[in-house]
Structure formats: C-alpha cells, structure tokens
Amino acid sequence: MSHQKLPKFKVKINGTPINVMADTGASxxxxxxxxxAKLRTKPKLSGTNKKIFPYGSNKPLPLVGKCDxxxxxxxxxxxxxxxxxxxxxxxxxxxxxxxxVREKLEEQLLNDEKLGVIxxxxxxxxxxxxxxxxxxxxxxxxxxxDMHQVNKxxxxxxxx
Length: 160
Prior knowledge:
With 160 residues, the chain is an alpha+beta fold. It contains three helices and seven strands; from the N terminus they run βββαββαββα. It has helices at residues 33-38, 99-115, 148-153; strands spanning 9-13, 16-20, 29-32, 63-72, 77-85, 131-135, 141-145. The strands form two sheets. It has a five-stranded mixed sheet. A two-stranded antiparallel sheet has the order 6-7. β6 and β7 (141-145) form a beta hairpin. It is globular, with a radius of gyration of 18 Å. The chain starts with 8 loop residues before the first strand and ends in a 7-residue tail after the last helix. One of its GO terms (biological process) is proteolysis.
C-alpha cells in the first residue's frame, strides 16, 4: 500500500501545516529529517539514547535526536515530544484506523474507559498492541487486541 493511498489529516507542528498519519499502535511521535527541516520554527534537537523499533522488527530506527513541538489541530493544542528519524520516511509501518470507523472506535474506547475495562496512559509504555475492529450487526464495533507480538514474548512455565 503506498503512502498516497493512506488516510492523512493536517495538523500544525510549530506553526507549520503538516500532513500526518495517525499510527494507533505507536508509543512515540516520529518526524523524518525532511519534515523537521520544513518546520518554520525549529525546536532545539537534543541527543537521545532511546531505541525505537518499528512494529514487528528487531532493528531500531536510525534516530537523529528528539525535540518538543507545539501540535495544533482544529480542536486541541498540546506540546509533544517527537523523535527525528534519519531520512525521508519517518512514519512507522502503518496500523491505520479507517476514517469511516474512527468515530465509532473513539466512542467505544471512551465507553470502555468509563467502564474501567481499559485505562488511558500518558507517555511511553512498554507494551502497545494493535487493535482489530470487528463490526457488530447493530452498527457498533467490537474492539479486539492483536496479542501476537506479546504472546511471542511470554515465557511459559514449561519453557522456564
């Protein structure tokens, strides 16, 4: 699937309009060097020892550094940490949510959070698993977690 076919939306990063793709499985924000170079107001880039791995890979992304940027959408403003990746394709392998189900997913996640089924996390986390949405007959969706990568890391009693 080419990047042109993936759903994108516009945000302002440090006042610069940027087309981005939301990766629902990512635990960090990524900018490539080319996008970083386009920012009208360049944030201070600091070094980092962090290792960031694309989903399902054991090879880390080549990082140039990290920075804090102002991110603005039509409804929200926040300051977020971004890791700058060497080269011109700084997005992680896509695990996209189709626009036609995004609103239903957000509603379901908010409902699950209210019920205590899930809890919101802020900042980095050790485990992030992609979700799979299954349509229900009444038009709602069932959110399922893809545990393949987690299961590969679990040590069974018989294996210890």
